[in-house]
Structures are given as C-alpha cells and as structure tokens.
Amino acid sequence: MAELKLFRTWSSTFALRVVWALNLKGIQYDTIFEDLSNKSSLLLQYNPIYKKVPVLVHNGKPLVESLLILEYIDETWKQTPLLPEDPSERATARFWAKFGDDKVLLSVWNVFIKQGKDKEEAIVTAQENLGFVERQLTGKKFFNGETIGFVDLAFGWLANLPSVWEEICGVTLIDHEKFPMLSEWIQNFAGAPIIKESWPPRDKLITKYQALHEVYTSKEAPK
Amino acid sequence: MAYEVVLVDTWVSMFGMRVRIALAEKGIKYEYKEEDLCNKSKLLLKINPIYKKIPVLIHNGKPVCESLIIVQYIDEVWNDRSPLMPSDPYPRACARFWADFVDKRVYDVAKKVWTTKGEEQEAAKKEFIETLQILERQLGDHPYFGGERFGFVDLSLITFYSWFYAYETFGNFSIEAECPKIIAWAKRCLQKDSVANTLPDQKKVYEYVVQMRKRFGVE
After folding, report:
1. ipTM of this model?
2. Entry pTM
3. Which domains does chain B have, with CATH numbers?
4. A91 vs B contacts (CB less than 8 Å)
C-alpha cells in the first residue's frame, strides 16, 4: 500500500502545485483523479470541510489546502527546499503566495468573465496587482532567486491560464512591454524541467474554459 | 530608546490582538503604534503598500504583514521559548489549517451579523453559529485546540471573543446557548495573562461597533 496519495483533477491549478512540489523533490506517490461533479466518498471523508482537491494523504493522514500542503511537504522532505530558511524571507514568501491566491487570481479571473464596464475595471485592478507581482522579480530569475521555490509554485497558474483565457476572451493582460520581468518568468517557469512535463493539455483547457466563459458571459448583460 | 520590534495596530482589531498575544507569550518588548484607520499614517502606507492594513510588525526595520504570517514569524524568530506551533509537521499542518479556517470562515460572516438586518442577518447568524459548532467539534474534549497547551489555533480564534458581546447584542442571540464549549474554552484562555491583558473589554468593543454602525448607516 503506497504511503502517499494525491487526490487531484486533470486541470486543477491548485493540485498542480502539489504535483510540482512532489516531483521537484523526487517523491513517489499515487494519483487519484477525481470527478468534481461526482466526488468520491474518500474525498469527502478526507476533506469534509471544503470537499475539494487537492488532498494529500500521507500514511493515512489527510492534508488539504494547496499552500499548506506545500509547507508540509517542505517540512517532511528536506531535499530541494521550497521555502527559504531565514524567517523574514519565509514570511515574505508566505505573504506573496497569499496575495496571489487572495487577490491576483480573482482579479485576473474577473477580466476573463466580466463584460463591458466591469471588464474595464477588472483590467485596471488586475494590472495593478500584476504590477506588485512584477516588482517582486526585480533582479531575480524566479521569485525564489536562482531556483524555483514556494512563491513560484504558488504563482504557477500565471504561467499557463492567462494565455488560455486570453485566447478565449481576447484580452492580453501580461504583455512584454508592461510586464517584462513577469513575461520572462513565465517563459522560464513554464519551460523548466519537471514543470513543463505536467501542464494539462492545452486543447482540453481551451474547451473547458470556453464552456465556462459562455456560462458567465450569458448571465451578464453587456453594458 | 529605539525598539527593535514595533507593532502598528489598532486596539479593537482581532487580528492585531493575535500579534499582541504572541508577543506577550514570548515576553518580547516592543513599541506599540496605534493607527487611526480613518486617517492612515504615511508609515502604514509605506510598510503595507499592498493592503494598507494593520497589523504590521516591524522587526529590525523590516515589515511583516498579515496576522497569521506575523505570528508564525514571531514563533520562528523567538524559537527558544513558549512555542506557539506544534513541533511535528502533521500537527503543524493541522494547526495552520484550522487557523486558516478561522480566517476564511469567521470574520466575514461575523461582520455580517453586525452590519446587516433581516434575512441577511439571520443567514449570517446561522452560518456563524455553524462555524463555531464545527470548531467546537474540533476542540472535542481537549482544554485547548493545541491539545494540553494554548497554541496557534487558540490564538487565532480567541481574539474574536472580545467582539462576542457586540455580535450577540446586534444579532440578538446568545453564543453561550448555542456553543457552550466555545465559551468555556474562551474563559479558560482568558486565565492566561497574555490573553487577559490583550483582549479589550467586550463593552468597549460594543461601543466601538455602535459608532461603526452609525458610520456604515446600519440602523
């Protein structure tokens, strides 16, 4: 019986963080793919509060919430550390990962699903947030410095989903002129070993988000 | 005298209180700067340009933002005394989970209890009670969420206790009637000096909320 199991979906950007962390550290694990429209009883047992993926089960003990799972992985398997050792740098890394999830992701998503005036306002907010993120890359190849770390994994979705959403809704948020450092980071991260092997198939992502885009934009009257 | 630890905060913030309890638990001397959130200082805008919020801890000139991140920072820097987090990775992950749960599920719905009326308020009350009941089940028969010792999860939740009278008064309900174990746990936490000396009087918080309701136009 394997001691490490990851419950994920084929596309979950949060589960991908855990895939990257485990793969970067060379840790063996079993994968269970969930269908979120028909959640398994195991998933509901392991994550009764949020009922979501990812869930990592280590020796029968469940861990949930992707960023918390990453911290657990980093504390349990010390090779290829994801978080810095210095407490001040660790606090900074946690701050940026949280900012990414609390503010950046939602603001970029809003650009994708909103229309008219709401969309214009969403673009302003998203670019303001992306500006904060861009400045974190000053003088660095990755948010973690020379190698990929916690904040890079937390922002990993930026290296993949915005380009999918751009293709569908026609708005380019992260262009080379406005965000040169972020654009370069996207190239470096998306093409890095381990990372590049695990992206979900782009055509499937386009299909999925095209359908979601239609659902959201049909609900809203153009302004 | 220049302090190497400065806390920018406001007396009524349950998030700021978390940091004050952590500093007290560790016996750390610090300079406290009270912030007027209606007239934010240049200092606050400089040290927290992203959120412009308190609390912010400044240690040796470097700011740390977000209360739970600050508390973990304090625990990691002053790691020679009064640990706030468990030492093993799995209990640490569980502690982070439950503190994060408090952040995600308590604040927003509790705020609705004192800023809304009618059906919206009733829905908020129901969700607030259900959230506390989930926490009660997690507490189980232990004296603290940390087990035998006060810890990270206790610290993340106890500060809301100072707002309970305000929630109960404006929501017209009794938290003790719905969640007696939570109240018993809170009173246990209040026996600790770090908690008792940090949490403001519930009536003072209530007066503050009365003023805020006027400002938000909730009457």
Report:
1. 0.95
2. 0.96
3. 5-77 (3.40.30.10), 89-216 (1.20.1050.10)
4. 64, 69-70, 72-73
